């Protein structure tokens, strides 16, 4: 086995019930209950027409500017997988464009996340298959390798293991460890319910901001009342 140029073919994927459930939960709520420590880089933005992303991670690591392993991933991915590509965040060459997205659509993947550049954004914007990327560049990729499939990758500071639950919306992308996904989603739903209650109080004019003064006092803030 050659680290850096290898392919793993089998791993356990996130539970299908968790995948379906996560599709209706905001990434911001998930992020909050994961201590705001596990999000993808802020520059990773959606380029598709619209719709949430949810599915088990199919992990790909590419040499920056090279997409050989992504081509292989499109032959291997199962329906419902989210292909997550660590391309080092480099924006000098597009890792994917319209033609490869067409193959992703035919493979029935749930979406593609690339920490790197894409191109053919007008065509991608007409698709409902979620596509997240770090930027755009018209220059095409090389196809020489090396790279890896089916091993842990990192998108910025977010570690993604194959099979982890990937969730994305207009606010960005987050990875939830498959083993704790149900617990995380429980907390995220509770967080959302609390926020909806707070919003209702705000709209009815009954918002209680006492916690703000308490936080200022606890922090030793000086208030001049003159």
TrEMBL record:
CDD domains: RraA_family (cd16841). Gene3D superfamilies: Ribonuclease E inhibitor RraA/RraA-like. Mg(2+) binds at residue 120. It comes from the Bacteria. SUPFAM superfamilies: RraA-like. Pfam families: RraA-like. Substrate binds at residues 97-100, 119. This is Putative 4-hydroxy-4-methyl-2-oxoglutarate aldolase. Keywords: Magnesium, Metal-binding. Its cofactor is Mg(2+); a divalent metal cation. GO terms for molecular function: metal ion binding. The lineage of its organism: Bacteria, Pseudomonadati, Pseudomonadota, Gammaproteobacteria, Oceanospirillales. Signal peptide: none annotated.
